[in-house]
């Protein structure tokens, strides 16, 4: 099926992932941080599974040895800053990966910038992170790109005309919802209303009463899977039977576990889903299922690709004279179209990634490819 692509090609320069011939073996330590406990742990836990699988793959090649030092930031900005200080002061840490909440990464980036420690994040999408530091890169698309694509898709492909927007009150929710709304209006839709909620909220009936009175034909939820599932369940209880739309923040198996039948037919987007099998994903799917006895999420795939991209950067740094923090960071900017299961990775000068999206829907409690793609 056709996909709108922001990268020039599906495959480009393929860099070897081991050290250059004759290069002495080094150890590359990845400082991994994300929410590994609490309501939003699914992002961090799944990313780490992808990182660990890629580390195992890279280590089997011999030469450079990779290891992971993981720390739980509990989705708290204060913890994020303390962890950044810890990684900066540990000279064994060559690169930082992970991050499941944009606000945590935003709080930590000044620390990393000061100590010149490169960051390659996989689940933080706030546009505020673009150009935030020459040491920041991410292999996930920004909210501005993803939200706009979803807004266009909602109107042009799904035919929606009157949409109510609910979003979590943070950088992620505000950014993705604004991009969605702007694109939907541009395509001719009406935004019936916009309301914010806080992460951790449990009761959405007051907001949903306003939604019901507006009589939209769809509700877009700019938020994570926990609140999105609760909103969908409470909406159904109030008799609201409209099309639900959400974001990559809801792209997690926990959405169905928490939302049950209420999230059936919800449409979301993401950069990967195991139901979409291609030649470039076959080995990853087989290895992941053999290791974890489950199908990988988009966050696992992004974590895997980020680590394999690090492998390419380390190889390039090795050829240039040595694997240091600065050399890895320089190599990130030089890589082009590194193959991956979420598509090729190329970083723009802003630190953002070029890439593409799939549109998915919930059918019988599973994510499947939506009938219409852009």
TrEMBL record:
Coiled coil: none annotated. Belongs to the leucine-binding protein family. Keywords: Amino-acid transport, Signal, Transport. Pfam families: Peripla_BP_6 (PF13458). It comes from the Bacteria. Residues 27-365 form the Leucine-binding protein domain. InterPro entries: Leu-bd (IPR028081), Leu_Ile_Val-bd (IPR000709), Peripla_BP_I (IPR028082). Residues 1-24 form the signal peptide. This is ABC transporter substrate-binding protein. The lineage of its organism: Bacteria, Pseudomonadati, Pseudomonadota, Alphaproteobacteria, Rhodospirillales. Transmembrane segments: none annotated.
């Amino acid at each position: 099926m056709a996909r709108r692509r922001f990268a020039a090609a599906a495959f480009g320069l393929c860099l070897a992932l081991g050290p250059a011939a004759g290069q002495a073996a080094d150890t590359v330590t990845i400082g991994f941080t994300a929410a590994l406990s609490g309501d939003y742990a699914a992002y961090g836990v799944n990313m780490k599974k992808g990182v660990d699988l890629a580390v195992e793959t890279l280590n089997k090649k011999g030469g450079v040895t990779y290891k992971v030092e993981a720390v739980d930031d509990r989705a708290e900005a204060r913890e994020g800053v303390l962890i950044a200080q810890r990684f900066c002061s540990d000279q064994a840490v060559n690169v930082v990966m992970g991050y499941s909440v944009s606000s945590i990464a935003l709080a930590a980036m000044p620390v990393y910038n000061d100590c010149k420690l490169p960051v390659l994040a996989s689940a933080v999408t706030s546009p505020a992170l673009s150009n935030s530091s020459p040491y920041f890169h991410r292999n996930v698309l920004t909210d501005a790109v993803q939200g706009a694509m979803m807004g266009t898709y909602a109107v042009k492909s799904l035919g929606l005309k009157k949409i109510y927007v609910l979003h979590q009150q943070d950088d992620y929710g505000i950014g993705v919802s604004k991009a969605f709304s702007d694109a939907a209006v541009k395509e001719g839709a009406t935004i019936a209303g916009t309301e914010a909620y806080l992460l951790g909220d449990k009761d959405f009936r007051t907001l949903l009463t306003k939604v019901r009175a507006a009589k939209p034909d769809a509700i877009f939820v700019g938020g994570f899977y926990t609140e999105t599932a609760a909103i969908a369940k409470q909406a159904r209880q109030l008799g609201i039977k409209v099309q639900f739309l959400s974001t990559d923040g809801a792209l997690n198996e926990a959405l169905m576990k928490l939302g049950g039948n209420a999230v059936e037919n919800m449409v979301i987007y993401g950069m990967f889903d195991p139901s979409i099998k291609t030649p470039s994903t076959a080995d990853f799917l087989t290895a992941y299922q053999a290791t974890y006895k489950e199908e990988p999420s988009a966050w696992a795939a992004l974590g895997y690709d980020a680590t394999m991209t690090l492998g390419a950067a380390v190889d390039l740094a090795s050829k240039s004279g040595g694997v240091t923090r600065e050399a890895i960071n320089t190599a990130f900017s030089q890589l082009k179209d590194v193959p991956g299961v979420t598509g090729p990775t190329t970083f723009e000068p802003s630190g953002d990634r070029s890439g593409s999206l799939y549109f998915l829907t919930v059918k019988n409690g599973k994510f499947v490819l939506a009938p219409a793609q852009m």
